[in-house]
Design a protein that fits this description.
Low-confidence stretches: none
Helix content: 25-40%
Strand order of the largest sheet: 1-2-3
Distance between the termini: 36 Å
Oligomer: single chain
Mean pLDDT: 90
Shape: globular
Strand content: 15-25%
Length: 79
């Protein structure tokens, strides 16, 4: 049993890059991952959205909750 099995992580910026890598590692250990990121629709030059990240997390063995939020925006955090 791993330390992250059945734990829930809240990761900001997990639609790509380091945030996604951390989320995938946690998912492989059986974690639930809430993805808080602003990218809901594909960017023309950057891969990944919260929805594609959620699919990758679930394929890696975790459970995902994609949350569209720009953590830099106070109103978005409140909503």
């Amino acid at each position: 049993m791993t330390a992250l099995k059945d734990r829930t992580l809240f990761i900001t910026g997990a639609s790509r890059g380091i945030g996604l890598a951390i989320a995938l590692r946690a998912a492989r250990e059986g974690a639930n991952v809430a993805i808080a990121a602003k990218t809901e629709t594909p960017h023309p030059r950057l891969p990944g959205t919260i929805h594609s990240a959620a699919a990758e997390i679930e394929a890696a063995g975790g459970k995902a909750l994609p949350l569209a939020v720009d953590v830099r925006d106070e109103d978005a955090r409140t909503r």
